[in-house]
Structure formats: structure tokens, C-alpha cells
Design goal:
Helix content: 40-55%
Number of strands: 2
Structural class: mainly alpha
Order of helices and strands: HHEEHHHH
Largest sheet: 2 strands, parallel
Number of helices: 6
Shape: globular
Radius of gyration: 14 Å
Strand content: under 5%
Strand order of the largest sheet: 1-2
């Protein structure tokens, strides 16, 4: 399949996994919005790459697209150990599922700004950084549908 708009083949593979998980975890009326929030988050956290972590050697034994070094965070969403096992967090489908489970607990996630919804899930030290990805991510999700 062709790459999604503005993405390389690695990012496209991971974005398609997130989109597929979105369709499993949400009713049709909520899918696109959930996709926008998830891929906005993935763009900010990892450039939509499955990142192992040099400080967390267990992550290096799983397939990965690069190596990060943020605390003990791994995977597309840079999830810490409280999210799941290393193997689970290094899996695009499962890490997206964990992200969506947390998103569903965010009050008014369907209507608050996309960047704010991402921040409510991730609790980032840089809460405004998600907003810069929203426009391009909407194109990615729409094309990936």
C-alpha cells in the first residue's frame, strides 16, 4: 500500500496499525476523532515509530524502529511500565489499545480540543506540543480510512 500523506513507510505501517485498532475499540461515530487524538499523540511522542529505550534494555530485544531514552518509556506512545509489559508496549496494536482505554476515561474526550485530549492521557511535561500535529494528522487519518 502507498504511504499515508507526509509519512514514510515505517510511520505508515504504524499509523495503519493504530487506525485498525481504532476501528476495533470505538463505535463508528467516534472512530475518526479517536484516530486524530491517537496519531497526534504518536507523532509527538515518537514520530509514529516504535521506540525501544537504551535505559530499558528489555525493550531492545523486541522489533523496533529506533531507540529513545526518555526515562523508562517505550513504544509508539512512549508508555511507561505502568501501562503494560515491555512486550505489550512495544506492540503497535496493544499500545494503541492501552492508549484508547485511557482515552475513554477522559471526560468529554469527544469534544475537547485534540491536543488537550492527548495531554489528558499522556500527562506530558510539554502539554502544548501536541497541537502542532493536528492538521497533518487529520489528513493521515482521513487517507487511512
Amino acid at each position: 500500500k502507498d504511504n499515508l500523506p507526509g509519512l514514510n513507510s515505517v510511520q505508515t505501517r504504524n499509523a495503519r496499525a493504530i487506525i485498525a485498532r481504532t476501528k476495533k475499540d470505538f463505535p463508528a461515530s467516534q472512530e475518526k476523532r479517536a484516530c486524530y487524538i491517537a496519531i497526534t499523540t504518536a507523532f509527538q511522542e515518537s514520530q509514529i515509530k516504535i521506540l525501544a529505550n537504551s535505559k530499558y534494555p528489555a525493550s531492545l530485544k523486541y522489533p523496533h524502529d529506533g531507540v529513545g531514552h526518555d526515562h523508562d518509556s517505550v513504544g509508539i506512545f512512549q508508555q511507561r511500565p505502568s501501562w503494560g509489559s515491555t512486550k505489550e508496549r512495544m506492540n503497535a496494536d496493544l499500545s494503541a489499545h492501552f492508549f484508547f482505554n485511557a482515552l475513554k476515561r477522559v471526560k468529554n474526550w469527544q469534544t475537547i480540543p485534540i491536543g488537550r485530549a492527548a495531554q489528558k492521557v499522556q500527562v506530558s511535561a510539554f502539554p502544548d506540543d501536541y497541537n502542532k500535529h493536528v492538521t497533518k494528522v487529520q489528513k493521515v487519518c482521513n487517507a487511512g480510512w
